[in-house]
Amino acid sequence: MHPRRIAVLGGGPGGLYAARLLRLARPSCEVVVHEQGAPDTTFGFGVGLAAGTQRRLEAADPDTLRDIAATGCRHDMTMRVGGRTARVRNDRLIGVARTELLAILQRHAEKAGVRLEFGSRLAAADLDADVVVAADGVGSATREAGGFGADVQIGRGLFLWCGAGFALPDAVFAPVDTAHGTFVTHAYPYSGGHSTFLIETDERTWRRAGFDATTEALNSGATPPDASDTRSLEYLQEVFAGQLRGHPLIGNRTRWQRFRTVRCARWSDGRVVLLGDAAHTAHFSIGSGTKLAMEDAIALAEALTGENGPAEAFARYEAVRRPAVERLQELARRSQLWWESFPSRTGLPVEQLMVAYMTRAGNVPLDRFAVTAPEVVGAALGQFAGLDGPVPALPDLTGWVLDRPLRHRRRTFPGRVLPAGDDLGPTTLEVTATDPWGGDADALLARAAGAAGVRLTGPPDRPSVLTRLDLAERVRTETGAVVVVRAPAALRDDLAAGLVSGRADLVEWA
Q1: DSSP class of 188
Q2: So which domain of life are we looking at (predicted)?
Q3: Cα dihedral 355, 356, 361, 363 in deg (nearest 10)
């Protein structure tokens, strides 16, 4: 049985795009979007769409992408630390105003014959439809009311979204040290001469600055639900004055939040299917919710078009999308942990920090990054090796890294691979933790206190080795010990990236 009536709960990018694609695929099907807000109001500022997402949108619906690209703003990426800047060319990324994106998607949905209804808060049970697409966001009431096996994990770090009334020339990552601690902004331009400023910090800094009190006051119900944390905005406006160039920060329901990672055992329940943030989230530092939701919409429309009934279509949709989503969620988990521990790295030279940033989740190989950003990687290699200048392009980058000598206090090592039989010291730690900054890792760190050398060993699989590298960084930063990571030689490229990024001092073949 093919659906004759489809209802979409939520008029964000994922819901609107799904509605259009479903209507285009089935012109005889009634498709209605139900959005509780007004058509011209939205949270947020700019949205970033990477090159891969653009290719998928181009294949699914070139007309919509054409309009999105026309209103968007392309830009490179920079990192600024200690008065120095590292630049990476990345102009395939488009920044677009969320208001513009929604207007385009609303217009294209209506052009396809979708009916848009605003201003009513409805539940799936209220809708007379063969299929209900729940695109109602990270706080999805549909998900919470259904049998989806939802699991929501709350991050440690805090962040808020704000904006500014001018367009930055590039995206910028910039940490600033204050009397209270370190704040870091991820800022980027988008259409209309505006920029998004996402600002993050750790809980200790947040409390020292008094933002726990402002957050509590806003959440107490004594202020309107659309109020922004004006005290935080005023403070951060001064902190990031250099990046803002005299412009004020703009709030839009701007409040401190902790990231919520949503996972669901099932994405469908009866006639209801989840889409986008309602089904899954991935930390914004690695992939936007808009990207995931619009790619979900493509897969859902294809599944509902190709299968005989909703149950089969939902199974196909989940089978196609879940592997890609779970892979991105794992990359995002690593990236989130890296950003939540970011203040410990601000002592690195900016080029080395850029390499650490690009390789933080394990999805950008060092040699590939060296091709796209040779100046940055060349400078980082020189900093890693203690040379006076940058290193030119290398035919065997990994081999060169592993061959660099290391002098640590009174010991000198001829290369970064620990020779067989060198016990380094008495402290060997077996690492089974998956969170390098969690309680299990804290216990290992306590055992490393006072050691001159620490060896980290554990399972040979790649995810475990990447975790050991992250923990090694923490051990060497907090104890000053020379730290060696034991791992298979097959993962030498990952180990070399870890060495250049300051995650480890030495490696040892398992």
Answers
A1: E
A2: Bacteria
A3: 20
Last residue of a domain, one of 197, 219, 250: 250
Name the band, by pLDDT with cuts 50, 70 and 90, for residue 120.
confident
Residue 403, classed as helix, strand or coil, is coil
| Model confidence pLDDT, tens digit, residues 92-109 | 788 999 999 999 999 999
3-state SS of 96-125 is EEHHHHHHHHHHHHHHCCCEEEECCCCCHH
Q: Strand locations in 444-490, DSSP E? A: 453-457, 482-487
Question: Within this chain, do residues 295 and 381 fall inside the same structural domain, yes or no?
Answer: no
**386 and 323 assigned to the same domain:** no
- Non-local (6+) Cβ contacts of 175 within 8 A are 81, 182, 183, 184, 342, 343, 346
User: If you ran DSSP here, which 8-state letter would residue 70 be given?
Assistant: H
Asked if 40 and 64 count as a contact pair (C-beta separation under 8 A), the reply is: no
Residue 384 and residue 395: Cα distance in Å, rounded? 18
C-alpha span between 292 and 63 (Å, rounded):
20
**Interacting residues of 194 by C-beta distance below 8 A, sequence separation 6+:** 45, 46, 97, 163, 164, 165, 166, 167
Both 62 and 108 in one domain: the answer is yes
Q: SS3 for 176?
A: strand
Give residues with Cβ within 8 angstroms of 367, minimum separation 6: 397, 398, 493
Based on the domain organization, do 355 and 427 belong to the same domain? yes
Using CA of residue 407, residue 412, residue 414, residue 418, what is the dihedral sign?
negative
For the record, the structure tokens of 29 come out as 């099907």
Are residues 293 and 144 located together in one domain of the fold?
Answer: yes
Instruction: Give me 139's structure tokens.
Output: 């706080």
What Cα–Cα distance (Å) separates residue 196 from each residue in 69, 434, 455?
18, 32, 42
What count of Cα atoms within 13 Å lies in the side-chain half-sphere of residue 88?
28
Token pair in block for residue 168: 């930055």
CB atoms within 10 A of CB 265: 9
Residue 357 located in a structural domain: yes
DSSP class of residue 181 equals -
Per-residue pLDDT reduced to its tens digit, 239-292? 999 999 999 999 999 999 999 999 999 999 999 999 999 999 999 998 789 999
Task: Give the separation between CA 346 and CA 82, rounded to whole angstroms.
Answer: 8
Q: Comparing C-alpha atoms, which of 361, 210, 357, 288 is closest to residue 50? A: 288
Domain holding 104: CATH number? 3.50.50.60
